[in-house]
Amino acid sequence: MKGVDTTFLIDLLRNDPQAVEKGNELDSYPVVYASEASVFEVVTSVFAKAENMERALHDAERLFHQLRVLPVDHASAVYAGRISGLLMRKGLVIDPVDCLIAGSLLAQGCTTIVTRNVKHFNRIPGLNVERY
Predict the structure, then answer these.
(1) Spatial CB neighbours of 126, under 8 Å, sequence gap ≥ 6
(2) 74-110 pLDDT, tens per residue?
(3) Cβ(127)–Cβ(112) below 8 Å
(4) What Å distances lie between residue 14 and 8, 34, 40, 58, CA to CA?
(5) Domains of the chain: residue spans and CATH
(6) How many other CB atoms sit within 10 Å of the CB of residue 79?
(7) Extended strands (E) in the chain
């Protein structure tokens, strides 16, 4: 099972060649996962940076519909809190939204994330990081 991070989704929407190549590879998987936390970050980016917000939002929604978007529910929030707390103990604090993304994936048994943000996600035990 593979999940994707916000960096991948934004790069895919920007037609980054490496992201597009990885996206084509992921098309062979029956299901690719993402977190609602990534939906939040992508939509934030659209409204903060896009010249044509409506078109960018439409493109983002089309992309979300190609994924199985996992909720940030109680189980994923507890998982994310464990991740965040354990990393804090080690002095390896990462963005709380990254903890929520990882928590959403890991709570559902998804152990691989596709991202450019290797620095943060490599710190999370049990999560395999696949860079594109």
Answers:
(1) 106, 111
(2) 999 999 999 999 999 999 999 999 999 999 999 999 9
(3) yes
(4) 10, 18, 17, 13
(5) 2-130 (3.40.50.1010)
(6) 21
(7) 2-4, 32-35, 68-70, 112-114, 128-130
